[in-house]
């Protein structure tokens, strides 16, 4: 229901799920966020963060990366672009197998050994879009940084396209990558 855009039903069913982990809090937070309930979304994202004790860049954690991406989306929507960039960069680090740079002007250059292509794609794309929207801010390099991040997105898509072996998979990827 979350992917289909039926957020009330997604919330209803996610609340009924017995397990309680970061994935559930991420999904529930996303459903609240997309339905416009910022307070409930913030609470869920905080609970998702609490499910990741001592998470850092030395130990990659897919769910933690998704939590950070969600927090970036939340910060961007609440007009906190600096926080959003930090969350997106930390998400990219968690979702990348060999990237550790906290400088938001930098992006992964190699995508060998990646296993979370879609989530990494979405984090990079969110970062690029945020940077693009900041082009009018005086005294920053947002245009250059947005360009470099979009370039990383295209490189990731090109890499993944070579790995997919069916036309249906390639079509899905093309639709996802229509930036």
Share of residues in helices = 55-70%
- What is the helix tally? 8
β content, as a range?
under 5%
So what's the overall shape? globular
The structural class is mainly alpha
Largest sheet: none
Q: Tell me the total number of β-strands.
A: 0
Mean pLDDT: 87
Rg over alpha carbons: 16 Å
Low-confidence runs (pLDDT<50, min 5 residues)? Answer: none
Summarize the helix and strand pattern as letters. HHHHHHHH
- Measure the end-to-end span: 24 Å
Account of the protein in words:
The protein has 179 residues and is mostly helical. The chain contains 8 helices and no strands.
Task: Give a quick rundown of the structure.
This protein is mainly alpha-helical and 179 residues long. It has helices spanning 7-16, 22-35, 38-50, 62-77, 81-95, 117-133, 142-163, 167-176. It contains 8 helices and no strands.
Task: Set out the fold topology.
Elements: H1 7-16, H2 22-35, H3 38-50, H4 62-77, H5 81-95, H6 117-133, H7 142-163, H8 167-176
Short descriptors:
179 residues, mainly alpha, globular
């Amino acid at each position: 229901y979350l992917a289909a855009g039926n957020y009330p039903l997604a919330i209803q069913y996610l609340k009924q799920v017995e397990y309680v982990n970061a994935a559930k809090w991420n999904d529930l937070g996303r459903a609240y966020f997309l339905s416009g309930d910022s307070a409930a979304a913030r609470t869920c994202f905080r609970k998702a963060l609490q499910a990741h004790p001592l998470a850092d860049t030395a130990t990659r954690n897919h769910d933690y990366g998704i939590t950070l991406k969600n927090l970036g989306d939340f910060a961007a929507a609440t007009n906190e672009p600096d926080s959003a960039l930090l969350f997106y960069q930390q998400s990219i680090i968690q979702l990348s197998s060999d990237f550790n740079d906290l400088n938001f002007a930098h992006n992964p250059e190699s995508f060998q050994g990646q296993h979370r292509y879609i989530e990494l794609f979405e984090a990079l794309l969110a970062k690029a879009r945020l940077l693009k929207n900041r082009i009018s801010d005086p005294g920053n390099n947002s245009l250059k940084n947005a360009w470099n991040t979009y370039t990383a997105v295209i490189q990731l898509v090109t890499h993944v396209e070579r790995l997919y072996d069916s036309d249906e998979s390639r079509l899905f990827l093309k639709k996802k990558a229509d930036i």
